[in-house]
Specification:
Shape: elongated
Number of strands: 0
Oligomer: single chain
Number of helices: 9
Distance between the termini: 49 Å
Strand content: under 5%
Radius of gyration: 18 Å
């Protein structure tokens, strides 16, 4: 059970530092001292907010998912925008963010799933919730696109959402290796404009 928290004053900076460090260095590569040094708080204060590094990581993942989905909806969910245009806008937003960050971080959810998925029950549970939310949003776009006859009818919306997501995550690995988003952008546009049409 979590300890009662005295104040949320340092909580938000800790979560933001966690997103940055876990995205750059992963779970095992990030030490408690690095987190505390980034936020400039004493070690004892950390335990007013989190019982363990594992609980901290789970809350960082949850915060990252909420933040990303909120940004995604703000950037894409305009009533007049067609669902395929929303997906293209989501790609543009995400790739612009990667380019701003120097293409070294990738998707924290994807990175941590590969690193600790299945090792930490707490983190795995939160990551699965994140995948479900993201897949739900994608499926919703493909369902609407099918109703508008903009995409294939021989696949389910869920199948198209999974294909989209799997190609996206694989492409993010190439971005980190090659230091360029061009190939991923072209491939995702090919998928949306040709393969899934």
């Amino acid at each position: 059970m979590a300890r009662p928290r005295r104040s949320d004053h340092n909580r938000q900076p800790l979560l933001e530092a966690g997103i940055s460090l876990l995205s750059e260095q992963g779970y095992h590569g990030t030490g408690l001292k690095q987190i505390l040094d980034r936020v400039k708080i004493p070690k004892g204060s950390f335990y007013h907010y989190f019982d363990s590094k594992e609980q901290f990581a789970a809350e960082v993942i949850s915060h990252y998912i909420d933040q990303y989905l909120q940004q995604l909806k703000q950037a894409t969910d305009l009533p007049e925008r067609a669902p395929m245009d929303r997906l293209l806008a989501a790609i543009d937003m995400s790739l612009a963010r990667l380019e701003q960050e120097g293409m070294t971080k990738g998707c924290m959810l994807g990175n941590l799933t590969a690193e600790i998925g299945g090792q930490s029950e707490l983190c795995t549970q939160v990551m699965l919730q994140g995948w479900t939310l993201w897949q739900g949003w994608l499926t919703q776009q493909f369902e609407e696109a099918q109703q508008r006859k903009e995409v294939r009818q021989d696949l389910t919306a869920e199948q198209m959402a999974r294909l989209f997501w799997d190609r996206w995550q694989g492409g993010l690995l190439h971005v980190k290796l090659k230091g360029s988003t061009e190939e991923l952008r072209n491939d995702m546009e090919l998928m949306l404009k040709v393969i899934l049409r």
